Amino acid sequence: MNPLDVPPDPAVPFQPRSGQRGSGFLTGPFRLGTTPSATVGPYLAIGLTWPDGDWAAAEGTPGGFWLRGRVLDGAGDVVPDAMVETWQADPDGRFASPEDPRGASSSPGFRGFARAQTLSGEFAVFTVKPGRVPDGEGGLQAPHVDVSVFARGLLDRVVTRVYFADEAEANASDPVLSALPEDRRATLLATPADDGYRFDVHLQGDRETVFFAV
Amino acid sequence: MTGTTPRELLLPRYVREDPAARTPVGFPDYRSTALRAPLRTPVDLPHRLTEVTGPVLGEDRVQPHDADLTWRNGGEAVGQRILVHGRVLDSDGRPVPGALVEVWQANASGRYRHVVDTWPAPLDPHFDGLGRVVTDSLGRYEFLTVKPGAYPWGNHHNAWRPAHIHFSLFGRAFTQRLVTQMYFPDDPLFGQDPIYNAIPAAARHRAVGRFSLERTQDNWALAFEWDVVLRGTEQTPFETEDDGDVA
Ligand SMILES: [Fe+3]
Does the keyword Translocase apply (chain A) (predicted)? Predict the structure, then answer.
């Protein structure tokens, strides 16, 4: 058969598996490949130590407390070379960020971001309880703190959320928390302690913390 | 719609990448991941206000000398002087201005200034391996340092990390947070390094800087260029049904 004798009307048109014609290079949105993540390694303290890292809210802020916890591995051992970062709204539910479309937080001394290391066996973040934040569907989320955990032995950060055990009513209607299997929700609850709350991160095991893909 | 319904907030949605295209959290050949990388599948978190906002960490965290790692304690670090430069972009190709970039690295001998690093390579009194810069209005960054050495790390017999610089970056949003490592072109140690090889093959080149002759400084320093791409938003403002109208 002459290779130029192409049937004019193929019985079945070409159907790419992607459901899209062509590679998308010309018709799809322009998109660069993202840079792959890597472990923070054992020496994160060289580059990522901040003297003020623990303070999401300024010392002395009314209602301020310490959020403390350990990061535990699959053998139940404390991970001493982890870094925990937290990000949250202020008590009015506003973020200290120009990306908050309602206007940034005006709480004095409120950064909403903290970075703490686990060298002593646990991390400690001084903060205030976040307010309720719209869930984007007309409701409100329960007070929560987004958390990133970095460590040697983690090739990407792992992300979780802190909720507060003493916010039972708000927690019951939170769309993220209530979508989780009931027996796993407790892994996201910080429990009241002497000077604030405790929240342990279990990287593996029966009590493995719920981690999120963001 | 009634008057009592709260006005919906128009929020960006950040691209959710195919997990197969991303570095996995755990990788068997990198032994420390065995007890640390979570074993359950992560739950998709919707991108709400907490996820699409992020802290402002700008110039106030950075001193002028933080962009020059070659001069500490009144003297000059030993090693091959290099200028590392590039842009921080999102995957839509938009520059990320005002982004805090924190870097740390071993010295020219492959030794970190850290109590846990005790392998017998010399410390350099004039090198601490810490740098910080903030991207300019076009998302550009640059810093001067010395080329880090390779170092052994005990993961397997005769395991050596290829030369690399650790990078930590904040974009605009919680979703854009990234900690990564920049490698140097054609490193002969790539083949045996599980941290490099954990990156999906199609994405590994994005972790490697490019030798940049055009920025090499006469009689002074070599230059390497490395762009960092953070996750962009799901839809671009230029998206249109009419493919004839691209203006
Ligand atoms: Fe390293």
Answer: no
Query: For A49-81, what is each residue's pLDDT tens digit?
Result: 999 999 999 999 999 999 999 999 999 999 999
Give the pLDDT score at B3. 37
β-pair partners for B71: B76
Q: Which two tokens stand for residue A194?
A: 């002497």
Contact B93 A212 (CB under 8 A): no
Neighbours of B243 (CB within 10 A): 8
User: Which secondary-structure segment (H or E) carries B52?
Assistant: helix B49-52
For domain A39-202, give the CATH superfamily.
Aromatic compound dioxygenase (2.60.130.10)
The C-alpha angle with vertex B91 and arms to B161 and B167, in degrees rounded to 5, equals 30
Q: Comparing C-alpha atoms, which of A159, A135, A100, A131 is closest to residue B53?
A: A100
Residues of chain A with pLDDT under 70: 1-28
- Sort out which chain B residues have CB atoms less than 8 A from A175's CB and list them: 46
Q: How far is the CA of B147 from the centre of ligand 1 (A)?
A: 13
Q: What is the pLDDT of residues B65-93, one digit of tens each?
A: 999 999 999 999 999 999 999 999 999 99
Catalytic (active site) residue B141: no
**Burial grade of B151 (CB within 10 A; 0-12, 13-18, 19 or more):** buried
Residues of chain B in contact with residue A179, where contact means CB-CB under 8 angstroms, are 43
The class that CATH gives domain B71-231 is mainly beta
Residues in CB range of B104: below 8 A, 6 or more apart: A43, A44, A46, A47, A48, B112, B129, B130, B131, B165, B166
Using alpha carbons, list the distances in angstroms from residue B77 to A32, B115, B128: 36, 20, 9
Amino acid letter for position B228: V
- In Å, how far is A61's CA from the nearest CA of chain B? 19
Q: Give the separation between CA A86 and CA A196, rounded to whole angstroms.
A: 15
Which tokens belong to B188?
A: 């002969």
Q: State the count of interchain CB pairs (< 8 A) between A and B.
A: 252
Residue B2 has pLDDT above 90, yes or no: no
Give residue for tokens 């199609």.
B202
